Amino acid sequence: MNAPRLTRIPNLATSIPGTIIQAMAIFSTGDLSATPVASLASSILTSAFISAQLSHEWDTSEKLQQLDPTFYGYLPSSLKWRGFTLLQLFLMSTFNLVIRALSFVILSQRSMSRVMIVFGGELALYLVVKILRGDFQ
């Protein structure tokens, strides 16, 4: 693994909760001024770009293809369609983050304990799937 990828993974892992926290702060205070909204948009767009770029890099890197050949091959060979697929990955990640942040904000208005249950459940499910797939080596 190269150094840029190692720095992108923690950035992605910390930016998703950061996006949720920023959205909660904006909606709880009602401050829709330019600075907090721009900061939230920046976090969402940065996270989405990192996610799309990691997927792109995993699919196009020969070394990474050898690690997991089943993941390889979803990007088309045409540069035009490869760019279009990267744009789709970016947009899908962007909308996923927006919906995720807004759903946590709406759920937090109801009960913060429910937010913790949902977040804890997602984390537990993620760990169970990782263990069942044998990803911890």
Topology:
Layout: H1 3-29, H2 34-60, H3 62-67, H4 79-110, H5 112-133
What does this structure look like?
- There is one protein chain.
- With 137 residues, the protein is an all-alpha fold.
- It has one domain (3-110).
- Helices cover 83% and strands 0% of the residues.
- It has helices spanning 3-29, 34-60, 62-67, 79-110, 112-133.
- Helix 1 (3-29) runs antiparallel to helix 2.
- The longest helix is centred in the last third of the chain and has 32 residues, at 79-110.
- Mean pLDDT is 81; it is low at 1-6.
Q: What percentage of residues falls in helices of 4 or more residues? A: over 70%
Summed up, the helix count is 5
**Biggest pleated-sheet summary:** none
- Give me the secondary-structure category: mainly alpha
Portion of residues in beta strands equals under 5%
| Tally of DSSP β-strands | 0
Instruction: Provide the number of structural domains.
Output: 1
Q: What average pLDDT do the residues reach?
A: 81
Ends: how far apart?
15 Å
Helix and strand string, N-terminal first?
HHHHH
Radius of gyration, CA atoms, in whole angstroms? 17 Å
Shape descriptor reads: flat
Low-pLDDT runs of 5+ residues are 1-6
Features:
137 residues, single chain, mainly alpha, 5 helices
Structure described in brief:
The protein is mainly alpha-helical and 137 residues long.
